[in-house]
Amino acid sequence: MINDETNNGDSFVSARMNLTFNYAAGEAGSRFLIALRDEKKIYGTRCPSCLRLLVPARSFCPRCFIDTTEWIEVGPAGTLVAFAFDQSLQCHACSGKGESDPGVRPCLGLIRFDGADTSLVHHIGEFDPDTLRVGMLVAPVFIEARSGSILDIAYFKPLEADNARSI
Amino acid sequence: MLGAGRAGSGSHGGKTMRRVAIIGTGQTKHTKSHDDVNQAELVRQAATRALADAGITYREVDAIVLSNMELFEGRALPEMWVGEGASGYLKPVMKIATGGTSGTSACIAGFHQCASGLFDTVLVVGWEKHSEGATQTGMMLTDPLWDRNIASGAVGNFALSISQYMAERGVTPEQAAKVAVKARRNAAKNPYAHLQMPDITIDRVLSSRMLADPVHLLDMCPQSDGACALVYAAEDRAESLCARPAWVRTTVTRHDQPYIGDLDRRLLTMRTLRDAARKAYHQVGITDPLNQIDVAEIYEPVSYAELAWYEALGLCAEGEAGRLIDNGSTEMDGVLPVNPSGGVLSANPVGASGVIRVAEAAMQIMVRAGAHQVANVRTALATGYGVYAWSDVIILSVDK
Amino acid sequence: MTELLRISHTMNMDWRYGTSWYFAKFIRALQDKRLILGLRCPICRRVYIPPRPVCGNCYAEMREWVEVKDIGTVLAATVVHVPIIDPLTGQPRPAPYGMALIQLDGADTTLNFYLAENDPTKLRIGMRVRAVWREQRTGTLSDIVYFKEVSS
Fold it and tell me: Which among A3, A17, A34 is the nearest to C13, CB-wise?
């Protein structure tokens, strides 16, 4: 039904929007982020029903649908349970570095802290791409000027070579 | 008192299906800015209150319908991200976004799911957190070919239609202001409402800042953060769980052409609302809505619209809406109280606003409306309005 | 709990919408010849401005082009006082500004457009207005700046 009778260009309309959003973190989210900012600590909350420890901390367990009020510090180090290289990532670890620098490949990872039942998503930085593997212990690298953001942690870096743990 | 409509275990226009009732409702306080909760937590507040009001747990919910204009908060896939706040884990969840009618669309979809027999207990939750987003820019994401050339915004578009309505029907700014006054005074008795102004006057409305001629600031609805939820159950189960369930007698939806210039005097004709109401009334045997309906929760985004909706809903003849507001027929002590909750004019979290209309209508039937309860409610009307001219009409009754 | 945080994100989004044959023809006529074209429904015979491929009332495809005048009648009018963000610039549009639904001579629908006049006491339903065209046209509906009153 639709055909371009004129068969020229001019068949597009472009539009641009600049939109700024300000999301409420909520009480639990704020408490978690403030702990990053002020104490450089990572917290989870435990569900009183299923007893899972949820990281990041949150106000309710989505499976049991009840309030989670027990706050438990985790980490700082955790186990890398998955990772993927992704060139489209914007990451502190990679900004300003050349492509041939080791550990400069943008990398996303899932980090499971001891005792936690969920994993945290974050960047992985300062690693050798040839030796990075699942099971390694990784630790957070905090930035100096923290503001209460998940990016107060710049990335997680492997603690040492050949430190893999069986998971 | 409603007529029997057509025969059948659930008439709904002659098509047999299970009869479904609302057995519980829940709301958050609607406010300018809910800093204390994120979106999932806001939804959870409303959902848990509705479940408690219904006397059931989240485990008994079989399906969930969400209502949210995700564009306004820039949060894609709220059915995924926010659904856990409605106990969505391992349940079927769908989200509906149809502008202002999102909430009523979701209520109708939830009703369909339960009436079909496929799901026994359905939870509907609508919410919005305007404080998080760029609602105005969201409103600008209209048709890129034509609408986006013009910065009219919602209020500009209303004002255009209102200018035609005033010219032809002769309503005055004072009569519109009376609607705004009624809404905010009613809201003063609703603990959930955003704008509560027990001392508001016509003068105060007319001297408030002009937004777009002739719409003043206080003629217009606010933008609110808030959530509202309700629970459906069918037949015997509804009766065993709830002493006085609000039975859904009929639901009708009508859409229209999208471009404002096509709508041929939108407020004057309001053909979607007129057509939907006519069909709904016919299905339940209403011939004199002003006297046969006991309470109405009408989706009125601007004061003038409520006057136009009186005519479209057949509460009065064309040209008589001004007289209806003047003689107090739609006040709390009038023959047909309109918007005892304060309406959209007093609380407008867009994704929730339609759910609030249906929930408030149900609360009136269930005698759970507290300080804004109308006496002897057997039949309640709820409407939704969206985009330029989409309409939903829902009729609830104490009778199956 | 005392401190509650807000997490801020700014997104810059670019879109490129495919238009189609009716848009291309309408815009070409507007830009090249200062000509306004509408489409007529074969069933109800209404002429639609701006053009679109299907008549919503009849659900019929429209292919018959009709020339429509750039002068018409105001059927609805308002003056907007709040600085609403202009989708074309992304910036608040300087207020107050007049807007109207204008039925161009030869069309059956109305066009939503700006007016030159922003004094509400000078606006009347029924007034006659004519398009004011941009000198340099770029191929959008905004090649018309606004509509200005003409004496009948």
Answer: A17
Judged by a CB distance cut-off of 8 A, whether residue A87 touches chain C is no
Q: Which of C3, C108, C110, C119 to mutate to test the interface with B (most CBs of B within 10 A)?
A: C110
Closest-CA residue of chain C to A32: C5
In DSSP terms, B233 is beta-bridged to B21, B121
Torsion angle (degrees, nearest 10) of CA B157, B158, B164, B165: 160
Cβ burial B199-218 (10 Å sphere, 16+ → b, else e): ebebebbbebebbbbbbbbb
* Size of the A and B interface in Cβ pairs below 8 Å: 61
pLDDT digits (tens, 9 = 90+) for A25-61: 999 999 999 999 999 999 999 999 999 999 999 999 9
Q: Are residues B19 and B74 in the same domain?
A: yes
Structural domain boundaries, residue B93: 12-135+225-241
Of B331, B329, B393, B333, whose CA–CA distance to B358 is shortest? B393
Residues B341 and B327 in one domain: yes
Please report, rounded to a whole number, the percentage of residues in chain B having pLDDT higher than 70.
95
Please state the domain count of chain C. 1
pTM of the predicted structure, to 2 decimals = 0.93
Residue C120, chain A, CB below 8 Å: the answer is no
Q: pLDDT band at residue A157, thresholds of 50, 70 and 90?
A: very high
Residue B39 domain flag: yes
Contacts of C11 in chain A (CB under 8 A): 17-21
**Domain of C56, in residue numbers:** 21-149
B148 falls within a domain: no
Number of domains into which chain B is organized: 2
> Mind listing the pLDDT tens digit for each residue in A67-110?
999 999 999 999 999 999 887 776 655 555 544 455 467 899 99
Is B79 contained in some domain? yes
